[in-house]
Amino acid sequence: MTSLRSENSALHDSTYAWETDALCMARALELAARGRGNVEPNPMVGCVLAREGAVVGEGWHRTFGGPHAEVEALHVAGSLAMGATAFVTLEPCCHHGKTPPCTDALIAAGVARVVCAVRDPFAKVGGQGIAALEAAGIVVEVGLMESEGRRLNAPYFKLVQTNRPWTIAKWAMTLDGKIATRTGDSQWISGDAARAIVHELRGRMDAIIVGRGTAKQDDPLLTARPPGARVATRIVVDDNASLSRESQLVRSVKDAPVLIAAAKDASAANIAELRAAGCEVVQYNRDPNTNVIAIDDLLADLGQRRMANVLVEGGGELLGSMFDAAAIDEIHVFVAPKLVGGKSATSPIGGMGVERIASAALVNLASRNVGNDIYLYGAIR
């Protein structure tokens, strides 16, 4: 841990003084985000220790199973933690998991006040961390920058509270809303800069999902290049388990897992061949209304596997089923300055769709230019 102290030695200089609680919490949130992709299914957490108007310690949860943010910040602060205020993006844990309770560490260090952005909904915490701190005589305040704290850890909150992963939809389309030409050609709609962002997204996902049509037409690899913090399980929603054994997905199964989401009535021969090739095949119920794989059954299974973030890359039929099931939480869309035309050219979202324009409005979206493309992104719920 010597490197941590060296890395943060400048914190003891008075030029790093903070004037308000909000600035300290904003810094804690910034630190917490550094753990994205490395800590899931645990939450991203940051901690800032301030005393007499100056920051004396910082820390964040860096990797799953590693020291928590509070412990890192306390190590940096050393004896200066006595009487300090701890600004933490999430309620400190109070149970023995992969690490000891952070509440114990804060109490032992003599911290006088703890400011939390959000209560932790996890059953083994759920207010008990706050109660433990208060029982030790520490002043606890909850709710500073709560909306930012909830937004940061939205995937964690969803997984804990619903046992479903945070589901992100991604697609690239032309200015007239097409993801492929009438012949099925789709490479490449977006430019190099947009594709680089997609690879960054893939690198922090637990799973990447495509439909059988996309798997057949594009023969994608669905890996992050260069590799990211995580190696995603590549999932093909394929009713009859018909994915070609010669596809890039199957041929690269030793490099990254492949899961085939098949129907209960899928071909036994197809399933046997894919399993022999190293793929996992899971059979799910069909949705009685659409006769395709029940989306909620698939997401419930991924939740049981403690997958926090999954990326849906299409095609239109799968994305339509996901939207119809209200299963999409966030979107990343790249709009290219290209026109395709053609009534048989593919659109990004199939399914039933909404009945009224009033139901189609989205909130919390941002946009920016990426190369020649327009990038729209953000949580939609």
General description of the model:
It is a single chain. The protein has 13 helices and 14 strands. The protein is an alpha/beta fold and 381 residues long. The longest helix is centred in the N-terminal third of the chain and has 12 residues, at 21-32.
Largest sheet: 9 strands, mixed
Assign the structural class, choosing from mainly alpha, mainly beta, alpha/beta, alpha+beta, or little secondary structure.
alpha/beta
Q: What is the rounded distance between the termini? A: 40 Å
Contiguous helical run count: 13
SSE topology string: HHEEHEHEHEHHEHEHEHEHEHEHEEE
Low-confidence stretches: 1-18
Oligomer: single chain
Structural descriptors:
9-stranded mixed beta sheet; single chain; 5-stranded mixed beta sheet; disordered N terminus; alpha/beta; 14 strands
What's the topology here?
Layout: H1 2-7, H2 21-32, E1 46-51, E2 54-60, H3 69-77, E3 85-88, H4 102-109, E4 113-116, H5 128-135, E5 139-142, H6 146-152, H7 154-162, E6 166-174, H8 192-202, E7 207-211, H9 212-218, E8 233-237, H10 248-251, E9 258-263, H11 268-276, E10 280-284, H12 295-304, E11 309-312, H13 316-324, E12 330-336, E13 366-370, E14 373-379
Parallel strand pairs: 3-4, 4-5, 6-11, 6-12, 7-8, 7-11, 8-9, 9-10
Antiparallel strand pairs: 1-2, 1-3, 12-14, 13-14
